[in-house]
Design brief:
The chain is mainly alpha-helical. It is built from nine helices and four strands; from the N terminus they run αααααααββββαα.
Amino acid sequence: MYLVLCSQNVLLKQTLAIAAKRETSDYKETTSRPSMMQAFMDSPSLPESEKTPRRIKGEAQIAIGAGTLTTTHALKAATYHILANPDIKERLIKELEWYITDPDSPPNLRHLEQIPFLNLVMLESLRIFYGTANRLQRIFPDRPRQYKNITIPPGTPISMSALHVHDNTRVFPDPYKFDPSRWEGPSPPTRYLVPFGKGTCMCVGMELAKAEILTTLANIFRRFGREMELYNTVR
């Protein structure tokens, strides 16, 4: 609880600082991509009357929370499967050594997003780790919905678990195998990757989680990958 309160105070201070900058005539983004709270502040979809520091702080806290606990579990699964598959480990490390010549000067996120096999490993890690495995219900309260020859009455809860999608053998052959190559090619099955949900109610921390996974895997395996191995670990 103490750490949560501390993080709330830090986010609030950062939000107040950004809000103060917005009042100046020379306000502008200092990076190629705005910070999360800058993006909230500058979002045209959020009315100015709702851009209070406490509202922005709350939005940032939700996004960070959504992209933290689940991300650590995805990283844990990714690390295990990389180390358990020597061919995958070697290919990843060679690619990182090619793209990141100096491990003490890691590239920014935009650069990491251009490293092919690293991104394939991230996608497969998100597939094999389900995120939220419980069903997330959606309800159409005012009208029926048609699915093929089935009419779903108004008010009927509709849901599907990510587990049933990610383990579907018709979409992902041999689904329990960690296989980043399944995401290669001109038509990868990205529409069936649903650890963050889909639609307007999907997880707001998705991009943050992806950034954390790419950054962590790239830095850890570029620096220490050749020395890392599993120890008394089973699947």
